[in-house]
């Protein structure tokens, strides 16, 4: 049965990051404007989200990350701890990206306001998290629309007319 649910704050972390992302078996697409050191519950400890991505990559999950600016220093430091992500996760930096999405195997999607950060995804305490909202869905039509937007940007369809090419290393590399 197809579902569409509105979620907020901590629900985003629980339903997207803790429940859906670990279920990835074929592909995981992530889109965010801001990218920081998100940590996730892993048993009795908190671990970098990158550790979870590293495990998915090691299991053969194809991971794409579309983001608008360079990650924060803690994220970059954590990234270096997971060398398999260098080849196991494709990244494109596009300064125009502002939408946020998580797509798991083409069968689940989140779209909303939350960046891929601890405060954005609701992983932090009640007094340190952002007020966010979005929806999760298993409706193939909605998932396809989110994937189409992601794919148009990923494939560079909007690059020529974007007006920010001077700030986009990935665009310069394509030329």
Keywords:
175 residues, alpha+beta, seven-stranded mixed sheet, two-stranded antiparallel sheet, 7 helices, 26% strand, globular
Order of helices and strands: EHEEEHEHHEEEHEHH
Query: How would a textbook summarize the main sheet?
Result: 7 strands, mixed
Give the fraction of residues assigned to helices: 25-40%
Distance between the termini: 45 Å
Q: Work out the number of β strands.
A: 9
Overall 3D shape: globular
Q: Write down the overall mean pLDDT.
A: 90
CATH class term = Alpha Beta
Number of helix segments?
7
Domain module tally? 1
Catalogue the unreliable spans: none
Helix/sheet category: alpha+beta
Could you tell me the CATH topology label. Answer: Endonuclease, Chain A
How many whole angstroms does the radius of gyration measure?
A: 16 Å
Structure, described:
- With 175 residues, this protein is α+β, with helices and mostly antiparallel strands.
- The protein has a single domain, classed as Endonuclease, Chain A (2-Layer Sandwich), CATH 3.30.870.10.
- Helices cover 33% and strands 26% of the residues.
- The protein contains 7 helices and 9 strands; from the N terminus they run E-H-E-E-E-H-E-H-H-E-E-E-H-E-H-H.
- The strands form 2 sheets. It has a 7-stranded mixed beta sheet with strand order 1-9-8-7-2-5-6, sandwiched between helices. Strands 3-4 form a two-stranded antiparallel sheet.
- A hairpin with a 2-residue loop joins strand 3 (39-42) and strand 4.
- The protein is globular, with a radius of gyration of 16 Å.
